[in-house]
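Subject: Protein record for review, amino acid sequence with backbone structure tokens
Why sent: The fold of this protein is of interest and is recorded here as tokens.
Notation: Tokens come from a learned vocabulary of local backbone shapes, not from coordinates.
Attached in line: The record itself begins immediately under this heading.
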Amino acid sequence: MKRIVLVGLLLVVALTAAGCGMIATGESAAEKAAQIAEFDVPEGFAPDFGMDVGGTVMVGYSQPNTSSHFFLIQAPESAGMSREQLEQALRDGLAAGAGNEAVEATEVEEIPVTIRGEEVTATVGSGSGSGSAVRVLTVPFTGDGGPALLLYQTAEADWDQAAVDAFLASFR
């Protein structure tokens, strides 16, 4: 089953790169996000894309004129994907799309967080993207339809821990 999901994710990557009509934007992208979890979108962020292929849902939001992005991916429960596989699928999908590449964090530390009432271990680290220092947070959680992952990245200078904490607390 994992193999089928991974093939599905590769299909998502190919469709994203080809600009296929299966990719939702704007309000439709926000509807795709609601398939993963309900949450309050941080101020200034707008939906970029959303897609659902074979039960795997992926959405992206960004803050215009900044390097701030967040992405969510959810695999079907039946996929049995690990956090690492989900994160790699998200990174592969983003790398195939134009302008949405996830930064590879270094100096990563594990931190306990609560999301949707679930205690999980998140990772936070620093990296570089577009010539500037970037902070990256990844948070695994249980989405409405299966295992999910949040990847949040912003310029180091724009990192606001209180805003990140409020964002995580808004997931329901």
Observations:
- The two ends are 28 Å apart (CA to CA).
